[in-house]
Amino acid sequence: MLLFCLEMDKKTEEFYIRLKEELSTTSVWPSEYLYKFIVPTSPKKIEEVENAFDNIGAVIQTKQSKNAKYTSVSINVMMESPEHVIEKYIEVSSIEGIISL
Question: Which CATH superfamily is domain 30-100 in?
Answer without folding.
Answer: ACT domain (3.30.70.260)
